[in-house]
Amino acid sequence: MTVEFWTSGRAPDPAEVALRAEDAGFDGIIYVDSQNLAGDCYIALARAAMATSHIKLGTGVTNPVTRHPATTASAIATVQSLSKGRANLGIGRGDSSLAYIGYAPAPLKTLKDYVIKLQAYLSGEEVPFDADSNIDSLGLADKPKTSRLTWLPADQAKVPVDVAATGPRAIAMAAQYADRVSLMVGADPERIAWGIEVARTARRQAGLDGDIPFAAYLPLIVHDDPERAMQMGEGSLASQARFSVMHGKVVGPVSDKQQSTLGRIHNAYDMTRHTEGSSSQAATLNMEFAQEFGIFGPPSYCVERLQALIELGVDRFFLPGGSLLISNDEDQVQAVTRLTEEVIPRLLRDS
Asked: Residue 344: how many CB atoms within 10 A of its CB?
């Protein structure tokens, strides 16, 4: 099994971050689609595509609300063309992108319908108009009967679609309609195994042949001092853990202590400090929870934890790091350097 390690890019110059991530040895880089908190992800991906030669490029993640599926498909297909086949479309229900325009995450049915349309657009297929379409009111001599990306090159490889999912219904939907299931359930092996089994069961019940590849979003920081590592990664840990208690009810297997901590994260979450350390949500964390939901510690510990997840069937990891490559904090730069030099090579050698 080939294992990939992806990172995230979120900086003033997306091309520079992508190039540094490529040079550091990451297999892919993702840019968030959260219009109020970050620049446009597709412009970032286009710049990254033109600055790099082999690193894969994706959204991490987009949502089914702020863009029409034809718009999303066209944008990522353009990145596919510019990058000569390196694009990946990551999508979820939406979080900060919707919160900052006044909305909660999209209902699962909305995401499902959107993913189905995305897959059709990216395959060059025709997509029926929505029920509320009103093109007939124009009195045109002729008009399109359906929607399709007419410009899509026939020889261009289809962009794979992966769905970031936490709850059992979202995981099951992703297993049936996406090309990959990206689990946002933390780094606890029991929770990862649970998510994988939910997906595989859904495929069996739907009569789908074969398995589906799995990825995992993980908060991970390499540092000899686990406490310092957690301090550096507490913002991403709190934001990722919140997905397991988004609406106040914990999803997936958890211990009593984990449930208590997740409840505190939910009640304390300040969206105006989303992903930030030293926030009210970060203040609810403790080391025991951090070492279960995240991976914080020296290289040998990180290798052991990641290897356990690889053995469960995860073949792609989305990890923090890309933007840290241009940080002014030497600890942050060293954390990424040690990840790419002391952790990833050992896992690739052993996988």
From this structure: 24
Amino acid letter, 203: R
Considering all CA atoms of the chain, what is the largest pairwise distance in Å, rounded to the nearest integer? 71
Burial of 275 (0-12, 13-18, 19+ CB in 10 A): buried
Dihedral sign for Cα atoms in the order 289, 294, 299, 303: positive
What pLDDT does 35 receive? 96
- CA distance linking residue 195 with residue 28, whole number of Å: 23
Domains of the chain in sequence order: 4-128+156-221+297-350 (3.20.20.30)
Could you read off the pLDDT of 69-119 as tens digits, one per residue? 999 999 999 999 999 999 999 999 999 999 999 999 999 999 999 999 999
Q: What gap in Å lies between CA 143 and CA 166, rounded to an integer?
A: 41
Give the type of residue at 187: A
Neighbours of 55 (CB within 10 A): 24
- Closest alpha carbon to 312 in 197, 198, 167: 197
Cα(106)–Cα(129) distance, integer angstroms:
20
Regions of the chain where pLDDT drops below 50: none
- Are 98 and 65 in contact, with CB atoms under 8 Å apart? yes
SS3 34: coil
* Number of C-beta neighbours around residue 143 at 10 A: 9
